[in-house]
Specification:
This protein is of the alpha/beta class and about 300 residues long. Helix content is about 40%, strand content about 15%. The longest helix has 17 residues.
Length: about 300
C-alpha cells in the first residue's frame, strides 16, 4: 500500500509498532521492520548506553528502516539525542514534551521526526514545530495518555481537519478492521502498541503478556491523572491508587505511592500485584501470544479483506 506514511518511512505497510517501555527492544523492533512495517525501540526505559546497544543490535538484525521512540521528559534526553545522531537512526518518534525543543536538531541531521499528540491543538503546534507527521493517540491507548480523554473515533477526524501533514492513528487498534476504520476517518497509517506486547519478541515479562491475553472489557482504567495520566490493568497497585485518589491525596502523596521502578516491577519483572501494568483497552480483544511477523501479516490481511468487502 503506497500512501504518505509508507512512502515517508519507506516501508511496505503503514503500520507502526509503538515504542513501549519495557516491551520494545531491538528484538521486537527488528522483527516488525523485517515484516514490512516500522519497528520502534522504546527509549523511555533505557539508560543511554543501553539505548546505544539496542540500536546497534537492531541495525545488525534488520536492513529495513526502524526508529526510536523518545519521551521528551526523559532526564538524560541530550545523551539520547547524541546517541541517536551518532548511530544515524533514520526515524524518531517524540512524545510527552514540546516538539520545538529537538525537532530542528534532529531534522538537521537527516532524521524524520514524528510527534505524538492527544488533541488537534497540540497537533497544530507539532506541525508548526516542523515535524514530518503526527501520531494522534486516543483515550483508549495504553501507557501515558491525554488528559482530554478524547477517543480515537473523535480525535482522528478532528486532527485530520486541523493539519496538513500525515496523521497516524493510535489508541484501541489491534486488528485490520480497526485499521480500516481509522483510515476511513482520515488517518494515513496506524500505530499499534498493546497487540505487539503479546509477542515472543517483546521484552515484557511472560506473566504480563498472559495477563493481557486474559483481560476482559473494563479491566483497564485511566489512573494517576494528577501526575501523568496512564491507563493501567487493574491489580492491587491500581486499587491502592484508586483509594488514594478517592481520599483526595495530592500530587506529592501519589508520587510517593508510585515510588521508583513501579512500571519495571510490573511489566518487566512480572509482579502482577504490586507492579504498574500499562496496557490499552484493546487488550480485551487480544487472545494469544504470537510472533510479531504473524501479527503484522494478520493485521494487513484483515485490513485488505475488510477493505475489499467494503466493511
Amino acid at each position: 500500500m503506497n500512501n504518505r506514511i509508507s512512502t515517508l518511512f519507506n516501508i511496505n505497510y503503514p503500520i507502526i509498532q509503538a515504542g513501549m517501555i519495557w516491551a520494545s527492544g531491538w528484538k521486537l523492533a527488528s522483527a516488525v521492520s523485517n515484516a514490512g512495517a516500522l519497528g520502534l525501540i522504546g527509549a523511555g526505559s533505557m539508560y543511554p548506553d543501553v539505548l546505544r546497544e539496542h540500536i546497534i543490535k537492531c541495525k545488525a538484525t534488520t536492513d529495513k528502516p526502524f526508529g526510536v521512540n523518545l519521551p521528551l521528559l526523559y532526564p538524560d534526553i541530550d545523551k539520547h539525542i547524541q546517541t541517536i545522531i551518532e548511530q544515524k537512526v533514520p526515524i524518531v518518534f517524540t512524545s510527552a514534551g514540546n516538539p520545538k525543543t529537538w525537532t530542528n536538531i534532529l531534522k538537521q541531521n537527516g532524521i524524520i521526526v514524528v510527534h505524538v499528540v492527544s488533541s488537534s491543538l497540540f497537533a497544530q503546534k507539532a506541525e508548526a514545530a516542523g515535524v514530518d507527521a503526527i501520531v494522534a493517540e486516543g483515550f483508549e491507548a495504553g501507557g501515558h495518555n491525554g488528559r482530554e480523554e478524547t477517543t480515537t473515533l473523535v480525535l482522528i477526524p478532528a486532527v485530520r481537519e486541523a493539519v496538513k501533514i500525515p496523521v497516524i492513528a493510535a489508541g484501541g487498534i489491534a486488528t485490520g478492521r480497526q485499521m480500516l476504520a481509522v483510515i476511513v476517518l482520515g488517518a494515513d497509517g496506524v500505530q499499534i502498541g498493546s497487540r505487539f506486547v503479546c509477542t515472543p519478541e517483546a521484552s515484557s515479562h511472560l506473566s504480563f503478556k498472559e495477563a493481557i491475553v486474559n483481560a476482559k472489557e473494563g479491566d483497564t482504567m485511566l489512573s494517576l491523572k494528577k501526575i501523568v495520566p496512564v491507563r493501567l490493568l487493574k491489580n492491587h497497585f491500581f486499587d491502592e491508587v484508586k483509594q488514594a485518589e478517592l481520599r483526595g491525596d495530592d500530587e506529592e502523596q501519589l508520587k510517593n505511592l508510585l515510588g521508583r521502578g513501579r512500571a519495571k516491577k510490573g511489566m518487566f519483572e512480572g509482579d502482577l500485584n504490586e507492579g504498574e501494568l500499562e496496557i490499552g483497552q484493546v487488550s480485551a480483544l487480544i487472545k494469544e501470544i504470537k510472533p510479531a511477523a504473524e501479527v503484522v501479516k494478520e493485521i494487513w490481511n484483515d485490513f485488505k479483506m475488510c477493505k475489499c468487502a467494503n466493511l
